[in-house]
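agent: user wants the structure for RNA ligase domain-containing protein from Staphylotrichum longicolle. delegating to structure tool.
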Amino acid sequence: MADNAPSPAQPVLPVKRNLVSVRKVWKVEKLPVTSGAREFNAIHVDDLVLYFEIDSFIPTASRFWELFPSNSKNVDRFRGKEGFRVKSKWHGKHYLSQGLVYPLVFFPEINVPYKARVRAIGCEEATEELLSKSFARLLEVEKWEYTETAESLPNLGPPPGFIYWPGWIRIQNRDKSVFSNETKIWQITEKLDGVTMIVYKLAKDTPWATYIPDLPADCPTSMQDEHYRYGVCNRQEDMIDRDDNLYWQTAKQSGVLDKIHGFGLRNVAVQGEFVGATVEGNTMHYPDGLHEFVVFGVWNIDTATYLEPRRVVELCDKLGIKHVPVVAYTSLKGYARNVQDLLKKAEGRSRFGGVREGFVFNSFDGAEQFKVISNSWLSLTGK
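agent: tool returned. relaying tokens verbatim.
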């Protein structure tokens, strides 16, 4: 293993969207996010509120279920449970909600420990601590996915913990300081409406290999050879190659499994979007039966870093592997002054046909990412 590789005893934890978090209100205007009228009138500048991001799935069994704007018409089912899915929603012609907010006092399981921390360490430090946490697990909130990609498949368990999973937050949820760095260069790519998927390769003699489960006796040869282990994951599962597994089928058809040595890394995770006819309601209008794996990044497992974005594009072109469409390499200076400018830029037609979902911004060092979703696409798809 490389000398500067992180210790396998301290794996890189997978990154997930922060679906439920505490925010501090800095401005109150009509309805930038959804809330019941009573709850919204109770929110003031500098208040602490609990924010539920788009695609949060709140089960009907939750203690706080009665807070949500639910009825028999908008109850969804996800992994065998009924609940409410938080979606974007237009309010009049000018306001598109980016989630739900409620006063923090409605959630004593969060507010009471916070008050205790205030007494123990002071308000400023306790609040900073609170704002950094995710409360999705505490409140049993999950990220909603379409049924076709949410069903459990034969698997080895969760994905390897030492593989980094990207997490793109919407630009509306980013600190405005992102616009203050005028020299940072971003790769801008088209956002595809799919499911994040990883194809990985691990040398059997690397310490990393001791942190993944043994393969079942009947596993196919596609999952290993004399020197390497190969895997295909979504965010929930490290899947076993079976005939009915669309992820594995698509990884093979894309050429990534056959050409993964061409990325020049001994231990590597190729990241991309799994898109197609049965994915995310097929908003990309794929023909029946067609699915694709479209690469957006390459993670060096040994150094815990991303390959530079331009290099990934070059390698994909050389190897004949599909990469997400690149829009530009640019700083935000001169490209966009604020969130509204970015939202306007996101509008347009997709290179796959139809209305474009939006853009993904990746910094060259891989340390920062965010997404800009087209309001037209949100209106069209109801997401």
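agent: one observation worth passing along. The CA atoms of residues 51 and 101 lie 5 Å apart.
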